[in-house]
């Protein structure tokens, strides 16, 4: 694995997921989201620091990932595409996924042994001494970077994202810009042309989740808040939970005052911008590839379908899986999950809606063992699920439930979990060799048949 | 006084040791460079990997030149289509044309000669001028029994092909000029070197530089410099109006060596010329993005005539 090119955050969902999948296709564990042995060795001692010092280190560490607005103008979208494509083994694939980031999808792609090319990347731009709660200043100050990024490449849309509830620590030092590809970069085209079999299928992953945004240009939007612990209404109108959260962090205001939204647009991190579809379909048409679009609204809808798919696939192999591995944001390892013959269940974040998703799942399914990863973003934000509630969910295991590499006392500031989660997962037994890849028809038939009950529908572009 | 003498002796004694270290270091570097240079020069003409993929090699006596060429036989059984001939750029050889040859072989028979003095086509004496290289190409075609073909050039190869097409129109069914040099608004060696360096940065993920090093070692520094001079002297813009064959000028939108404006001018100057821009493309499309390049020009090549 190589480090992402400058301008792309390593702590982002897309960067983490693509590396986790690529590691699996190489037959390796995803043991280091940072891809830095130095950083990994520093994480455990950093975790011993007092709360405020830990937060400060997290912020400064994050800032080192950021670029300046001036550098943003030279952002190399093709370089990013090359990095992604270069992560995967050079071989012929029967299919490829393109589109929305989704942790559950990584397990599907891993089972099929095929790559996924993300549409969205996080580009953090340095903005030291910013006030995460001042939406208007964030909006105004971000315009220069938006302009620079728009000039960097005409093929991307920019979603400036300000979420003081979940990204509080990082937003005090930088601004978040999600870049969405509106056309296939040449690096993606070349990878697909080089790697796909003549009768291959391109699967577009289209998460239709949207969010109220303020338009700042033809290809740019400002999004206040994001999918997570707080509701849309709480971001825009406030409420008792928001007031308590702000008071907890010593903020004088009782609610946020975001610029008025002008439309709803694809959610910055998870939503799919349909502008990309045209170039995918055009390329597929030239090569006679099939194009299937999988449409769903909630990212976690795919988690239910994936768990079901894995169970059915294991049964085909004569295996009754008794273990559930719960992923959290970018903490996942499809390789070891497969070797454990475990059912994967991915959660967007460590917040109440995700905990509720898992609760619903566990009402229907039971497991002897539940092993849970838990992402820490460093903020006691609105809707962050307490460690006791997570523990209660793992306790639903018939035999044993446990956290994987989580320091319960330090959650949600348990930053060393980034280096511990995979070691803990790899210690679980028994493990087997990787199974033969899931047949593509098995995946497609199952999802067409059962996807609708989880809100996933198939749309054929060649029909 | 005595102390001063002693100090001066110490200083004097220290100097030779630094000289020795520097001298040994320089000798080691020169020895390493010589070994490396020799190793590069001895690189086999065809790698096992290339042979496994279906590239074959052949030497042909073409007039006074013994010329080496690579061949990717058509997989699709379209024997009646005219062959495609790939013409390499400055100092580099047909070795870096292999990816494009393999990408095109599903539709066409593809040849890629090493022009005299480059790659495996050894040449005694000085560097050939652009018209002389075009003549050598003509001789090689004759020796291989290829009366008419479709041609694809990259970079300096476009200059050779422009000269060739202007003087031997009967041999050219159609032309693809990808990243033609030399941009007439940047006719200085320094600017060209800077642009080439910038292009190298853009292509570093799948750089053709390792192949370039082999070919520079095979061609030699003197020939490389002399050919650069020929490249700078040649005025492609004066020949373009004499090209009668349908010509597709292909430009990468990020190509710093042959920018879009220049490529567009080249297309406009060819009577039957058209421009095709490849979004995100760089200067060495044949090596870095061969499949995308092949797909982009496929329709144009399929309009080509049939062989007799």
UniProtKB/TrEMBL annotation, chain B:
InterPro entries, sorted: AB_hydrolase_1, AB_hydrolase_fold, AB_hydrolase_sf, Pept_S33_TAP-like_C
Q: Where is the Peptidase S33 tripeptidyl aminopeptidase-like C-terminal domain?
A: 244-305
Pfam family of this protein, just one? Abhydrolase_1
Gene3D superfamilies linked: alpha/beta hydrolase
Output a single Gene Ontology CC term carried by this record: membrane
Which residues are in the AB hydrolase-1 domain? 83-184
What's the domain of life for this entry? Bacteria
Official protein name in the record:
BioH
Instruction: Report the source organism.
Output: Caballeronia zhejiangensis
């Amino acid at each position: 694995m190589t480090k992402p090119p400058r301008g792309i955050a390593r702590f982002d969902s897309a960067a983490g997921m693509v590396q986790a999948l690529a590691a699996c296709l190489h037959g390796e564990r995803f043991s280091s989201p940072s891809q830095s042995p130095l950083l990994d060795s520093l994480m455990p001692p950093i975790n011993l620091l007092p709360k405020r010092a830990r937060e400060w280190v997290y912020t400064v560490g994050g800032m080192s990932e950021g670029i300046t607005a001036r550098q943003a103008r030279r952002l190399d979208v093709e370089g990013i595409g090359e990095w992604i494509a270069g992560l995967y083994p050079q071989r012929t694939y029967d299919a490829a996924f393109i589109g929305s980031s989704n942790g559950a999808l990584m397990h599907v792609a891993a089972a099929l042994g095929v790559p996924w090319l993300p549409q969205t990347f996080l580009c953090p731009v340095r903005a030291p001494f910013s006030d995460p709660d001042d939406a208007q200043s964030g909006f105004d100050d971000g315009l220069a970077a938006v302009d620079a990024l728009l000039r960097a490449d005409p093929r991307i849309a920019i979603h400036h994202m300000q979420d003081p509830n979940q990204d509080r620590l990082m937003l005090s030092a930088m601004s978040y810009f999600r870049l969405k590809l509106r056309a296939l970069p040449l690096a993606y085209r070349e990878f697909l042309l080089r790697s796909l079999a003549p009768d291959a299928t391109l699967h577009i992953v289209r998460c239709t989740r949207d969010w109220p945004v303020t338009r700042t240009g033809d290809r740019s939007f400002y999004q206040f808040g994001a999918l997570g612990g707080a509701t849309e209404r709480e971001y825009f109108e406030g409420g008792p939970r928001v007031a308590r959260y702000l008071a907890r962090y010593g903020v004088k205001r009782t609610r946020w005052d975001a610029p008025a939204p002008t439309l709803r647009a694809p959610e910055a991190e998870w939503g799919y911008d349909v502008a990309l579809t045209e170039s995918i379909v055009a390329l597929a048409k030239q090569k006679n590839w099939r194009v299937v679009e999988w449409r769903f609204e909630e990212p976690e809808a795919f988690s239910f379908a994936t768990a079901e798919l894995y169970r059915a696939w294991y049964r085909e192999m004569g295996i009754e899986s008794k273990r559930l591995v719960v992923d959290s944001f970018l903490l996942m390892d499809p390789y070891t999950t497969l070797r454990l013959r475990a059912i994967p269940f991915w959660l967007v974040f460590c917040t109440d809606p995700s905990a509720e998703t898992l609760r619903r799942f566990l009402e229907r399914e039971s497991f002897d063992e539940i092993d849970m990863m838990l992402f820490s973003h460093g903020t006691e934000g609105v809707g962050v699920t307490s460690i006791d509630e997570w523990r209660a969910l793992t306790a639903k295991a018939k035999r044993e439930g446990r956290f994987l590499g989580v320091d319960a006392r330090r959650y949600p500031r348990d930053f060393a979990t980034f280096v511990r989660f995979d070691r803990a997962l790899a210690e679980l037994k028994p493990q087997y060799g990787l199974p033969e890849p899931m047949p593509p028809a098995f995946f497609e038939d199952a999802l067409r048949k059962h996807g609708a009950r989880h809100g996933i529908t198939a749309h054929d572009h060649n029909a | 006084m005595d102390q001063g003498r002693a100090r001066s002796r110490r200083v004097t004694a220290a100097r030779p040791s630094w000289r020795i270290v520097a001298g040994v270091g320089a000798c080691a570097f020169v020895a390493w460079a010589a070994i490396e240079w020799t190793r590069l020069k001895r690189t086999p003409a065809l790698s096992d990997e290339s042979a496994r993929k279906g590239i074959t090699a052949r030497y042909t006596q073409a007039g006074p030149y013994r010329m080496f060429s690579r061949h990717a036989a058509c997989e699709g059984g379209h024997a009646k289509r005219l062959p495609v001939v790939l013409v390499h750029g400055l100092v580099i050889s047909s070795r870096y044309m292999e990816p494009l040859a393999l990408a095109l072989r599903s539709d066409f028979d593809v040849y890629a000669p090493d022009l005299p003095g480059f790659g495996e086509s050894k040449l005694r004496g000085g560097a050939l001028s652009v018209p002389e290289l075009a003549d050598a190409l003509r001789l090689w075609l004759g020796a291989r029994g290829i009366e008419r073909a479709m041609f694809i050039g990259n970079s300096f190869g476009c200059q050779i092909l422009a000269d060739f097409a202007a003087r031997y129109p009967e041999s050219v069914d159609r032309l693809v000029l990808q990243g033609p040099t030399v941009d007439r608004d940047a006719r200085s060696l320094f600017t060209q070197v800077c642009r080439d360096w910038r292009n190298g940065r853009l292509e570093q993920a799948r750089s053709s530089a390792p192949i370039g090093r082999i070919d520079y070692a095979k061609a030699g520094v003197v020939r490389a410099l002399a050919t650069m001079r020929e490249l700078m002297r040649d005025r492609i813009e004066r020949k373009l109006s004499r090209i009668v064959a349908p010509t597709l000028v292909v430009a990468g939108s990020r190509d710093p060596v042959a920018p879009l404006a220049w490529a567009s001018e080249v297309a406009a100057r060819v009577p039957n010329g058209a421009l095709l821009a490849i979004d995100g493309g760089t200067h060495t499309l044949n090596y870095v993005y061969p499949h995308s390049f092949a797909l982009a020009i496929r329709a144009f090549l399929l309009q080509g005539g049939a062989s007799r």
